[in-house]
Amino acid sequence: MKTKITNSSPCPCGSNKEYGNCCSPYHSKKNHAPTAEALMRSRYTAFVVGEIQYLYDTLAPESRSDYDEKSTKEWAQSVHWKGLRILTTDKGTESDEKGTVEFV
Fold this sequence. Notes:
Elements: H1 24-27, H2 36-49, H3 52-57, H4 69-78, E1 86-91, E2 99-103
Antiparallel strand pairs: 1-2
């Protein structure tokens, strides 16, 4: 079951923005996450709100072969999501091909 969240709710990613102005446009495919940090935040929020297809869509192609949608959904629903804290980012800007995000 998806967590009930509206566009005016605080975004679960911890950005201090409303969901509608943060991760929702990525989940609805209106925009693509422009940075590695935005992608990390949007993927975390996808777990929280049950946007399981988004998780698949944003996997690296080489990681899709063993993706199990049913297990991912069951796991996401069984977890108590406490929050996301970004510790560091390395590269991953709009002009980078790759980047690293360290988080807890």
